[in-house]
Amino acid sequence: MARAPLTGELRIACASNFYPTLKRLATLFREDHPRVELALVSGSSGHLYQQIRHGAPYHLFLSADRDYPAALHQHSGSGEPRTYALGRLALWNPRGLGLNKQRGYTLAIANPATAPYGRAGEAAIGHYRSERPAPRWRTVVAANISQATQLVDSGNADLGLVALSLILHRRGEYRLVPAAWYQPLVQQGVVVDTGNPLAETFMAFLLSDAAGRVIRDAGYALPESSTGGGSDGLDR
User: Fold this and answer.
1) Are 30 and 24 in contact (CB under 8 A)?
2) 3-state SS assignment for residue 138
3) N- to C-terminal Cα distance for the chain?
4) d(Cα 164, Cα 176) in Å, to the nearest integer?
5) Domains in the chain, start-ordered, CATH in brackets?
6) Measured between alpha carbons, how far is 166 from 108 in angstroms, rounded to an integer?
7) Are 107 and 184 in contact (CB under 8 A)?
8) pLDDT tens-digit profile of 202-231?
9) pTM across the whole model
10) Do 140 and 151 form a contact (C-beta atoms < 8 A)?
């Protein structure tokens, strides 16, 4: 007997670094599930986490780290966290200013208090400052990694420590920050509304080979196995 098509609304809270990729995935998902309406909301992982803890009606949460999903699983009864992507941090230099140690720069990062990419950026700054001579820059803190990228794009900051996925196909130069300079950006998702068939179906899709190709093309690495929720291994 043919299974009835899925219908209804699925509300997904998504870390801002992954939002453009999620929109592409949503288009692909709708090809097989045209009756499902996807409501996508983005922000820093920490802010989205707090919204969920205070009752925001999201069905699925895609964080930029594993700590917030683990906390929801432990304290709020959300589903088991699953790794969907491994993030990469990049130093973006869209106007080709170089890293002249004799001049000053403004450097945009996301808020380390609520954004995993901000914490990674803060850790990387410590390594850059240990160089001799160290780069001379003033840090500008944005609410999330998307806003940090916008600060650089608009010229309100010279450089940015941002998600590779947000600038991979943008103008200018970038260099990958050494992975050893920050805690791995193991991006995990959880089904907040456990048992919700729409959320469970989208999570399975997110871990599929088809979604993995989109995620990889966006500049992320993939876990060794889509079934290994806590894996840090890179599928190169």
Assistant:
1) no
2) strand
3) 40
4) 8
5) 8-87+184-235 (3.40.190.10), 89-181 (3.40.190.10)
6) 14
7) no
8) 999 999 999 999 999 999 999 985 433 333
9) 0.91
10) yes
